[in-house]
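thread: overnight batch results

M.L. [08:02]
morning all. the overnight job finished for the chain we discussed friday. pasting input first so we're all looking at the same thing
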Amino acid sequence: MDYKDFGLVNTKEVFLDALAKHYAVPAFNFYNMETLSAIVSAAREMKSPVILAVSESALKYMGPELLMGMIWGLNIKPSEKIALHLDHGGSFEACVNAIKLGFSSVMIDGSKLPFSANADLAKQVTDFAHKYDVTVEAELGTLSGIEDENTQSEYSSYANPNDVVNFVNATNIDSLAIAIGTSHGAYKRKSENEKLRFDILEKISKELPDFPLVLHGASSIPQHYIETINTFGGKMSDARGIPADQLKQAVRMNICKINVDSDSRLAFTAGVRETLAQKPETFNPRDYLGKGMKNIFDNCVEEIKSIMNSENKI
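M.L. [08:03]
and the structure it wrote out:
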């Protein structure tokens, strides 16, 4: 299927607009109807462009037919600036499969490969994707942490500013994810003193002054959701995210896409735990899933307004 048949757009024009107007396009991961509906509702209410991000494991969980059926059911219009993005595609075949399903954007993650192999893989994906007007993201540097089966590493390595121009020129990618101190999962910092490597971001921004840069592993981990989870039986002590002021500073330095996954997971889990604990007689899934949806909606609205600066950008 052609993504345009679903009313989707690729990320090229919206990233150019984000660079010009100094905002970031939120890339929210989803895994089912409830999370998808909450994200899209928030973006529509805020009049914000949005990237609907799907990992390979989430695609497998939902199934391709059901996933694309849900996208079709949203009745998306191109004017809403909604992209469907494969997050952390692990192979050329995974990216091709997503493009054929109707994804408008794909990420090929060869960040654990040597530089030349990473570049060769990214170019292979880009050559194919651009035939279908699909945009491509690749990554330099490695993020630590665990989010799902395709995004986990015990080690991290920062993106090398000296590599970025050669990598972009060699691959013809449309956006570049860079590792500057974020990490996957809910435990992003060991202490409050840890900060993003803005010195690296500054150097990369100078090397690529008008090129879209992406921040992965950038959830802020709202503490009120952590407290709710722990209050109602969870065990998430020491979970810490990237502070909003650091994310906003990154946006001012050419970061035009911020990936958010863990925040939505926490918001949803907090809603479910709270509802079942306070109303133990509840057995209708719509009751506790509904609270989870509301939490995701509220969190997306807050992040669009206070971090992304993408409100009223369409």
